[in-house]
Amino acid sequence: MVTLRNFVGSYFDSNRLTTNDYSWKPKDQLPQSAGEYPKEEGEQLSDTTTVTNYSRNFPMLLHDGGDDPMDTIRCVACQICERECPPQCIYIEKAYDENGKYIKSPAKFDIDVSVCMSCQICVEVCPFDAIVMNSQFELSTPDRFGGLLLRRDDLLKSNDYYHQIHPEEAAARDQKMADEKAAKEAKKKAAAEAAKKKAEEKAKAEAEAKALEEAGEKGKEEDSGKEEAS
Amino acid sequence: MGPHHPSTHGVFRMDVKLDGETVVDLKPVFGYLHRNHEKLAEDMSYLASMPFTDRLDYFNSMTNNWAYALAAEQLVEIEVPERAEYLRVIMAELTRLVNHVSLVGFFVNDLGALGTPLLYAFREREKILDLFEQASGARMMCNYFRFGGLRCDVPEGWLDRAREVTDRFPKFLDEYEQLLCENEIILSRTQGIGKLSRELAISAGITGPMLRASGVAYDLRKVDKYGIYDRFKFRVPYGEEGDCYDRFMVRMLEMRESIQILKQALADIPEGDIMGKAPRVFKPKPAEVYGRIEGPKGELGFYLIADGTPKPYRYRVRPPSLINLTVLRDMCLGQKIADAVVILGSIDIVLGEVDR
Ligand code: SF4
Ligand code: SF4
Question: Distance from B282 to chain A by nearest Cα, in Å?
């Protein structure tokens, strides 16, 4: 009896229809099938399969747009994330210009995604908001060493892309960065003002000291005058 | 039996000596999934071990995180904000639902009802995992707790979705109870099978639903009152016989209590901060602490020794699965081989936690 009821119920009770979001919709509103997997190399399913805005998979590096992403890459190769990554799957080399000067960007930035465990610790420790989590998951490859080692240029993604996949988080991060920048500028301004004030005070103090000294000298002169008089 | 046997919940082997179909001796063999978790943790910063705790008992990453955070918070005395405390309770109780619901599914699977009941249970579990994904970004390896709070706040509308899931859950439980609790096959296969006496359970250090099924109403949520569990009204179900049926029923009833806690927590969760004042560099003074919680499988504890560096000197996990497994031989002796499978299922082990 119970079994029968459940059997019938499984067709009509909306709570129990596992696909209840779609079941009574017209055909063109149904989600498209994901297609065959894996597809041709380089082809992505991501426009047909949906992942939620919150899911995370592997890290990516952010740049702020522009023709050459390396001009606006946020990462400064400080290597904090390399040190903190629990399974140690990040490898960074700093970039130097011809004169051997460190130019604050990574020459190499590799993440071995066969080791990465998607823990997001690197995102948390990065002080420059340079690394965030991607939600792309179609990374299967026949080459299990080279293919799963993501290079800097594979990891580079624009901030716009970040806004596309994690709108809320990206907006919050931009807000935070803007706040921090504003705070920094305010601090700079305050520091400049303080320095100005200090300079003024110093000048004032110096002037006062000078005046005092002069007065003292005068007094001395007077004293000596008195002495002479006596 | 094993290590690759559908009933062994992972990679686990039992050396069973049989007389006909009766078990006369049994020796569990494990360690196939050993990942050197404790020793690894001694060589990395405190925070870096947090994602590894997810992988202990991979059904219950949220509660594992909590136990570890609880231990580490004692080292540096961080105040956890109110909202974070509520969210922690909500996550922990959702985890308990996930664990028990999958346990019931697997248990019925072990009894021979292959597939269908398990998938019914997984359908409910999936709804909760969706909630986890929205909050933390991952379904199973959540890595959501931090020393002093949580990694981030839940997104907008999450609490409403959680309320909806909580409200719908009892309906599923009703259905399951109707189908299973008085099912003739289940009764005859589980009642009187694998009895664990009260005395043995206590002296072997058994905890969690297994201990309660043997008639000891001991629940760390009531005993320690860690977090804010003293604010919620809930009962602690316990059994009498200590057989497989009691262990199964204790979990069914515990799910109802979890829903009670969830309802209360979701009703009075306040607004506010999510992270307490944690030091930027986690470098505790030399100390020795033990943090424990009532995980869905039993007492999960983390024992840490700090020596003034950013890495723990000693890091030890008290895994409920492993310690509950120690009485497997005592419960199986004299039973049939088919019952040994059921008994193992009723212990509720996860090999990630047994082997670490
Ligand atoms: S997500 Fe975790 S494991 Fe992966 S690169 Fe970042 S820190 Fe390392
Ligand atoms: S990603 Fe961030 S933490 Fe890592 S090297 Fe670049 S700037 Fe430093």
Answer: 12
Instruction: Give the Cβ contact number of residue A79 at 10 Å.
Output: 15
Judge: B123–A18 Cβ closer than 8 Å, yes or no: yes
| pLDDT under 50: residue ranges of chain A | 19-24, 31-35, 38-39, 41-50, 221-222, 224-230
Q: Are B48 and A84 in contact (CB < 8 Å)?
A: yes
Tokens matching residue B203? 């002296």
| Cα(B91)–Cα(B79) distance, integer angstroms | 19
Dist. CA B129–CA B134, nearest whole Å: 9
Buried b (16+ CB within 10 A) or exposed e, B110-131: bbebeeebbebbbebbebbbeb
Interface test with chain A among B119, B175, B177, B311, by most A beta carbons within 10 Å = B175
Q: Which two tokens stand for residue A5?
A: 């009821």
Nearest atom (ligand 1) to Cα of A131: 6
Q: State whether ipTM is beyond 0.90.
A: no
Question: What is the rounded distance in angstroms from the CA atom of residue A66 to the CA atom of residue A58?
Answer: 24
Please give the Cα distance from B195 to A187 (Å, whole number): 70
pTM above 0.80, yes or no: no
